[in-house]
Write a structure and sequence with these properties.
200 residues
Amino acid sequence: MCNIESMENQQITHKDYTTWGASYQLVLPLNFEFQIPKNDPVRLLRHFIGGMDLSELYRTYSRIEKRQASPRQMLAILVYANMNGIFSSRKIEAACKRDINFMYLLEGKAAPDHATIARFRSRHLSSCIKDIFAQMDAKLDEMGELSLMQLFIDGTKIESCANSKRTRRYAASRIIRTSCTLPGAGTATPRLTGTRPSCG
């Protein structure tokens, strides 16, 4: 009887180390590639940028630290961030620490901080971004993923020769010039400008 009671006490007081607790150790695979689907766009992006000529980008560096993300990896995470609507350098830094796809692009390197990302974008990428994007367009056209026969622009406002502001200014100037040629123009005051014209 005593043996049965002692066994029950041992079962009750036995600590379960498999339950969730403060000392729980999260287990992640050493190779993130197993966690990413084969058709994920991040795989194509990594392969795509890996085959580009980035010599112009590498020339903007005086030296490259081996422990930090390489210029190729920095370009990859920046392009992938823009593909997913992430533009803030602080949000990109957070994604590199939390998102498995960004970790996959970093290839085991430590996540860059927001200052490094902003510096890469302003000092290094800005000087050769036209050449890099031209390579991307040519490669995508070669793959049949992009047609260079049509041109699309974003929502940037571009002032044209026929916009409303130019039209109003042109109409006002025509009225002023016309009023100067009419009899009594010296006393005429155009309504559009509210000022007395100088007619000589």
